[in-house]
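Board notes (copied after class):
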Amino acid sequence: MKKLLFFSMICAISCGDSPKSPEETARLVVESFYNRDNAELKKYTTPGIYQSYISVQDQFTNVKAEESNFSVVRDTVYGDTAWVKFNSAYADRPETFKLIRKEGMWKVTETGLRERSPF
């Protein structure tokens, strides 16, 4: 019985949310923004960028929800900072997200005024 309980606990722990890669996080942010899943959007963004996205969400999400067709063009990771350049069905040209690792999770964040992506 103890072995069964131990095995069940191991399975439950391993089935939890595993850390997402910067690419997966970028896809989740794009899809949650356009599908108005604000709980998911908040989970994968820093507070400042989340408020920015919420304030403009009505202007950009009037289109019918469709497949995002998210595809990574290029990505780079420098320690706890990552950059993901991607295409999606929602934009005419590639976009770039800056991500930072906070408490083991990648989150989309603001780009500084004079900060440039490495692409």
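Comment from the instructor: The two ends are 56 Å apart (CA to CA). The mean pLDDT is 86.
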